[in-house]
Amino acid sequence: MLAFQMQDITKYFGSMKANDRVNLEVEKGEIHALVGENGAGKSTLMKILYGIHAPESGSIFINEQKQTVRSPAKAISCGIGMVHQHFMLISPLTVAENIILGREPTRIGQILDTAQAEEEVNQLSRAYHFNIDPRERIENLSVGLQQRVEILKVLYRNADILILDEPTAVLTPHEIEELFAILRRMREQQKTVVFITHKLAEVMTISDRVTVMRRGKVVGHMATGSTTKDQIARMMVGQEVEQSISCPGRQIAKASEPPDTGEPVLSIENLSALNDKRLPALRNITLSIFKGEVLGIAAVEGNGQSELVQVLTGLRRATGGAVTIGGSDIPRHKISIAHIPEDRHKHGLVLDFTIAENFLLGRQSEPAYSSFFKLRARSIDAYTERMIAQFDIRTTDEKQTARELSGGNQQKIVIAREISKNAPLIVVSQPTRGLDINATRFVHQTLLSERSKGKAILLVSSDLSELLSNSDRIAVMFQGEIVITLNAQETSERELGLYMTGAKRKAS
Q1: At the topology level of CATH, where does 2-246 sit?
Q2: DSSP letter, residue 401
Q3: For residues 227 and 183, what is the distance between their CA atoms, to the nearest angstrom?
Q4: Are the beta carbons of 244 and 252 closer than 8 angstroms?
Q5: Tens-place pLDDT, residues 200-238
Q6: Would you tell me which of 33, 46, 105, 296 could form a disulfide with 474, CB atoms 3.0–4.6 Å apart?
Q7: Could you tell me the residue ranges of all domains in the chain?
Q8: Model-level pTM greater than 0.85?
Q9: Does domain 248-326+424-508 bear CATH number 3.40.50.300?
Q10: CA–CA distance from 204 to each of 31, 85, 208, 380 (Å)?
């Protein structure tokens, strides 16, 4: 029996056709992978199913009954739930308060029955082996646990069809294994899961069937067991794809010259800082990065890596220690850093600004682009056109807003702007999160090209294969400390994982 069927779905955004007569059938009780490059139309199609977008044409059948889904409320009433890539939780509230929001149990009229709410959430959590305290505040939970709360929100509303958009993008390998165990239990209970992802190894591991989209159209349906990663990748991009770029074999060709171990470009001595709760986040961090070197940072979410990046880029004040770039104190030389942030929407772009305006962010006072408080329009246009061509940004023109672009093209804007600064130090955090195969390869090749030019690169990533493939050395952080620094050629995901979780410590 089909859980849902979408027939001839067409959706436009302006003149751009995001979905072009798309047909999709998903069976009840299966895990169905939906894959494709950034901008292929995957998320748009699922947002139509969830009622966020309305299609120009086409039909939707849920449990073989035709439905008109014009809002998330209607989708929920039809048994559909969606967990977005960017979580929608209220941090100061508890787990139970977030889950019941909008569907609160009451007693004696309109009085919130907190005890009943917590018991209902606790029962649901135990049923799926989530092991979450309903009284815990969201702000105290790891990213992996927050994702479980999002799934519980959907299940609390009796969803039988769950849409997961890039669900592993922010998870560690161990958290991914736990998520997959949860999804398998849901499948056993005849729940239907649509799994949007770019990670083909995960497609092969967890899905029953896979649908491939390219440029707004479906180009293939197949049983996962009867296909391969290479076949899926070819359908995604329309040509042969080299897969090794994201695999942990270090096959990527790095610069032929070893890093210059003379004067470090970045030197950090006994750096300390507090987190947002005024608790220690960094504890006497000491490390150096040399010219022509990529230093990776491996850590489970919440172990100080975000605070380290924030201190280096001026977003957080240090409480102790020193940071120097080429012997210069960092606060007086912030322009010496290029920053590709973890959250491109929050710290990398103004989504409602045009592409040209986003390219200019932080550079608007440079003489090349302004004079006597007046912007040089011709110079800005020329710079924008050059960046669009050089970084292959897919857009109609420079007047298009960043919000209208795919995630991969948004990331290319950030990378292009920061690389064009020609700074000696590049601080990069989660650069390929949510990106497809080609966009991921582009990011890696760009970073390694900058390395070959002698740039020092700090690479923070939750993707251990990305760190192993692109780093010269990898420093592991645990509870705000650097516990060990390893040669990337001589370690493995397993060894990194042991240090990341505190199961292994450097011999004293």
Answers
A1: Rossmann fold (3.40.50)
A2: B
A3: 21
A4: yes
A5: 888 999 999 999 998 899 999 999 999 998 899 888 877
A6: 296
A7: 2-246, 248-326+424-508, 351-421
A8: no
A9: yes
A10: 11, 21, 8, 45
